[in-house]
Amino acid sequence: MRSLMLFLSCFVLSTLILPFSVQAKNYRYMSAAEVKGHIEQATPMTLVDIQVEEDFAKHHIIGAVATYAYPVKSAADRAKINPVIAELVTNDNLAIVVCPRGGGGAKLAYDHLVASGITEERVYILTGGQAKWPYAELLDK
Description:
CATH architecture: 3-Layer(aba) Sandwich
CATH topology: Oxidized Rhodanese, domain 1
Strand order of the largest sheet: 1-6-5-2-4
Distance between the termini: 73 Å
């Protein structure tokens, strides 16, 4: 009887708690060194830069595509990424999201790319974002 009560208590608690628990998504990251290697090897990739226009004008990686979509919280922000998505669906390029710091905005852009049909195997977030990019020679200022 005691084990039955314990079982039922655990069952009820798990039924109430599990639906509301948040599972962390495993985002795919690429280090600055890996991105640099891909640039040097001319790997087909698209650097999806979501920095605001002012920050993009100050510094961005050579070849990055400006979207000005940061913080990617609204439909209007996501729509700014759609022209890049239209291009990505026509090729097999890697899609590396460049965010100011590689945080929440990058994750939202990543989610939008995947939800729009870009296979997750192609999508990455630049670790540390633009703020941690250590290769000044690959910056367009």
